[in-house]
Amino acid sequence: MAKRKAVVRWLVLCVTVIMVSNARDANGALPAATLKAIAKANADGPYLGIVIPNLFEMNPLLNSSSYKAAEIIDFAGRRFRFGTVEEKKVILVMTGLSVINAAITTQLLLSFFDVKGVIHYGIAGNANPALHIGDVAIPQYWAHTGLWNWQRYGQGPEDDLALESDGDYTRKIGYLRFANHTVNATACPSHDNLLNNVWYQPEEVFPVTGTPEERQHAFWIPVGSAYFAVAKKLEGLKLDSCINATTCLNYTPSVSIVRRGVSAGIYLDNAAYRSFIYRKFHVSPVDMETASVALVCHQQNTSFIAIRALSDLAGGGSAESNEADTFSSLAADNAVAVVVKFIKNLSSSML
Fold first, then answer.
1. Which tens digits make up the pLDDT trace of 152-167?
2. How many CB atoms lie within 10 A of CB 241?
3. What does the mean pLDDT of the chain come to?
4. What CA–CA distances, in Å, run from 16 to 9, 23, 38, 107, 245?
């Protein structure tokens, strides 16, 4: 099946190159030279796609002795870097910050290149009190927690949401009640908040295995089962604890296999919300990109896993500063160390 998909993609690209060449780079199409470079690259595939949010998270991999660089293809505002990691063929691509950039970049990667699976890595905040800065968390499930139905004031959990009867929204996942987070109201027997409630919603998805324009819904997206089995063998792996010769953690970070992680287009640095989402969803890493990568891979029927190193406590630490100011570089280095180890352990059948 995988070989057939690769052949079909190759034929489509060949036809596209011919059409675009004859059209003399018509408006809206990729240049013929770019399509030819893509077709040539795909002839050497398949690849592992490595999707990375930012340059400071990518640089430790670019500088790693395990990475051997080859050609680069630039298009659609993205740079696709070809090479090998532990002698396995990869395409590295930086997304940029947050959910929209991550989704666009992942879709471009899967639409244009012969990619067998996707590894996403980077740093993240930590909502799990049992984990620590510098640890690397590998969740089994990811969700996007930034899609809400914001309920009007005066209505509550027993009231239908707007458009709920049409199947557009649901109360099954749960909600955040703003009044539960009011402070300095001890003298009041009861208190309320005009912001009322926000209800978490699943994403509408349109898998390639489904029928176009017939929506499905998904909230928790599982990582690839075969990838997760490989990742589980890394649990407990000891990681670096020092940023430099003078700044070190007083413990040794390690790899933890966890149940859940979440993403939203929000930089989380708030202790109350950190505690809420941990109680509500039992999550560990919180970030701004992974759920987008997961949702695109889910819809494109492509295996995926995310490896996130914890750089801060998402607002749960000192009120003076965010720990990411100090520990981002250590977290990025630890994430790359685990990615390299993960790729090294992948069998040829997974490629």
1. 999 999 999 999 999 9
2. 18
3. 92
4. 10, 10, 11, 18, 54
pLDDT, mean of residues 337-341: 98
Compute the distance between CA of residue 304 and CA of residue 291 in angstroms, rounded to an integer.
11
E strand residue ranges, 1-87: 47-52, 67-75, 78-85
d(CA 176, CA 150): 10
The pLDDT value given to residue 318:
76
How many CB atoms lie under 10 A from the CB of residue 198?
A: 15
Q: What's the order of all strands across the beta sheet hosting 197-200?
A: 148-151, 197-200, 175-177
CA torsion through residues 265, 267, 269, 274, sign: positive
Q: How many angstroms separate the CA atoms of 157 and 135, rounded?
A: 38
HEC readout, 273-309: HHHHHHHHHCCCEEECCHHHHHHHHHHCCCEEEEEEE
The torsion defined by the Cα of 35, 36, 38 and 43, in degrees rounded to 10, comes to: 140
For residue range 51-87, what is the model confidence (pLDDT) as tens digits? 999 999 999 999 999 999 999 999 999 999 999 999 9
When pLDDT is averaged across residues 340-351 and rounded to a whole number, the result is: 91
